Amino acid sequence: MKVWFPIIIYIAVLDVIISHSLHNQHHGWQYLTLITCWIYALVIGCLCFTPASYNWGSVHKVFFYFHGVPFNVIPFQAFSLEFFLNIIMTIPAGCYVFFDRRHHGKTWPLVMGLVIGCGIECCQFLINLIFGVERFADIDDIITNFLGVQIGFAATWLLNKTALQHWFDELQL
Hints:
Blueprint: H1 5-23, H2 28-49, E1 64-66, E2 69-72, H3 81-99, H4 107-131, E3 137-138, H5 139-159, H6 165-171
Parallel strand pairs: 2-3
Antiparallel strand pairs: 1-2
């Protein structure tokens, strides 16, 4: 039962954050951004913090262990479907990074890509260490999550330069 505590805690924290955000003054399209962001974050939480381990390939990697918790610090040992799915998984995060009006300068998506990538992997390592959810931290996942955020941000930035700019302005928080 304790293996489900991380996702329960994650959902509770996510609800508090979104509830707080919804109480700020927003207009219709901004609510769409907040609600879809909440749904996306919920899906990411279920994919990353539940005890079920998703194995998209039979790639063998060399893992190190800390108190029985596996982690990989050697990048690019092997490429599998999981490598590319991690990129796809975080592309929407890059879009949401763009829709946050507080972003300033060219370093914002870089910083957020690192925060998201490292945040997911560090949380997976810690919840495995504390709750034994059979997850592992992988440097490849940090890299692919970072790349996904950058791709999502760049694609949204490019689309914002088209006729969609007015609509994108409405979606920004």
